[in-house]
Amino acid sequence: MSTNRQGGTERTRIAVLHAEDEGPPPGLDSLLGTAELMFASDQATLNAILDTAEVLMVTDFRTNLVERAWPYAKRLRWIHATSAGVDRLLFPALRNSDIPITNARGIFDRPIAEYVLGLILMYCKDFHGSLALKTKCRWQHRDTERAEGKRVLIVGAGAIGRQIARLTGALGLHTTGIASRARAEDPDFDSVRGSDELLDELPKADFVVVAAPLTEATQGLFDTAAFNAMQPSARFINIGRGAIVKTDALVKALQEGRIAGAALDVFEQEPLPADHPLWAMPEVFVSAHMAGDVVGWREALSAQFVENFERWRRGEPLANQVDKQRGYVPQA
Amino acid sequence: MSTNRQGGTERTRIAVLHAEDEGPPPGLDSLLGTAELMFASDQATLNAILDTAEVLMVTDFRTNLVERAWPYAKRLRWIHATSAGVDRLLFPALRNSDIPITNARGIFDRPIAEYVLGLILMYCKDFHGSLALKTKCRWQHRDTERAEGKRVLIVGAGAIGRQIARLTGALGLHTTGIASRARAEDPDFDSVRGSDELLDELPKADFVVVAAPLTEATQGLFDTAAFNAMQPSARFINIGRGAIVKTDALVKALQEGRIAGAALDVFEQEPLPADHPLWAMPEVFVSAHMAGDVVGWREALSAQFVENFERWRRGEPLANQVDKQRGYVPQA
């Protein structure tokens, strides 16, 4: 782990890259004594400010601008992403550089776990069915499902997957995690299997939850074979990254009744195009990449960056440092 | 507590009253060695079979037929209701008789608690908003709410209310119960207040959940004053009985933005009429009195009755005996 000692009293030049439609992140004012903030939301501005920036804060997880601006990043010493996923930053030149990447590990865990638990209960209790009947003013009793005792397979046993296991486990669901390697014991999962056992575990699950980072190992992981391995009664939940799923294979599995439903917060293409078949499928739930975004999330992300920046100024090791070869922050 | 010793080997005549559109309850075949089952779903048949029945099993919680058949119930010694609420059976003649009433306490607790937790998460995460946007193929990011730390006021601290407190408490929500009397300590609720403190507690709650039986004390309890006491951001959830709520006062409170939403599984009039204003309100969730009805619920209800019937045959005290003056099964 490299430390970054910062000498003297000069202000650190920090480039902040944000999405054009979002505006600059709030809550960075406390930095102004020790840092100069330079904001960009387009390629030309980013190129220009990277010329002098030592630190880059990236608040837009969808952007490719950093890769294109890379030749201009002459003095850069640290990149912080205000997202859990850093897939867009793992282009070869950055991956192979010695510039550390840190992420927002921890901020989204609990909100996302609540979101996933809510979706599981929504399916068990058929809330979407009740809301659809409501539009027709139609009273119709149905039997519902007991959530307790259901089996959840959580693909990705990092900080977010672990929190999902805690909350669903607290409600009496059985939890299995899929990690890069199987583990003999785990404090939060009933069991943790290796990624080579995915196809053996899929047929046992009532709910399959994707909470993995997008890496070479997970890209397109949910394909026809994976959906074929699931039970026809099973529901698929993706709060990870859209490209972990082959969307066409998912749509087909749903159309052919090979799985019973899908709740999707992330998509290969975001926003999901208005003419996409997923919108019209009754057992599909769509939300706009917001599972972790509880009120105050932007402020919480900035506070986490400010804390890490203070560590960096003091020459201390950075928190949440991504393993750039694996594509995520390894377990402590 | 009265015991009901049953002498000799003669078969007990059991009258079973069920709703016409539901058919007789499943899972009673095991009784046929010791009992003769007589089924009714209309007044004339009920009157006729009550003439000889010693036991009455009531599977239709909405019916007034028992009250009207009362003069014919000459040999009746025990009534079992396959519902948590027994309000329809507490007419004066039965209330003042020495015939015990038992209920389905325990069967619905956990399913209803899951249902309520799901509704709380639905509101926090705006699932109903996402489903409404989905009908328009519209991608729209919103900030959501953190469920952890929210305050739930559970009106009714019996078996169902207690289970709601357990599940919501396990998720990190703060739980206050309203019981007939305040309690110094409670294993499941953060605190339990007396019913005289309801109006003091309502302003503190993010979610108000009605899990009380319908009694003289709770009839119309949620009126204009109660809704006025709630926060404009609060949501109201009723899985108890419809008549605990003055529906017109609820509709007005919603229309005027004095509360933020309502999820209703029970109504003053069931089915909810197709032209009722509640159907069209976007922040209202409607379901068809089904919160506790997980797959296999009818069989579970019958199994519970069969077990109690065996107790009765052996002359043992009945389980789940309702205090007919208070209108519910008192805490053990």
TrEMBL record, chains A, B:
Record has NAD as a keyword: yes
Domain of life, source organism: Bacteria
InterPro entries: D-isomer_2_OHA_DH_cat_dom (IPR006139), D-isomer_DH_NAD-bd (IPR006140), NAD(P)-bd_dom_sf (IPR036291)
GO molecular function terms listed in the Swiss-Prot or TrEMBL record: NAD binding; oxidoreductase activity, acting on the CH-OH group of donors, NAD or NADP as acceptor
Entry's family note: Belongs to the D-isomer specific 2-hydroxyacid dehydrogenase family.
Keywords: NAD, Oxidoreductase
SUPFAM superfamilies cross-referenced by the UniProt entry: Formate/glycerate dehydrogenase catalytic domain-like (SSF52283), NAD(P)-binding Rossmann-fold domains (SSF51735)
Signal peptide as annotated in the record: none
Pfam family, one: 2-Hacid_dh_C
Domain D-isomer specific 2-hydroxyacid dehydrogenase catalytic: 41-322
Name the UniProt record assigns to this protein: Hydroxyacid dehydrogenase
Keyword DNA-binding: no
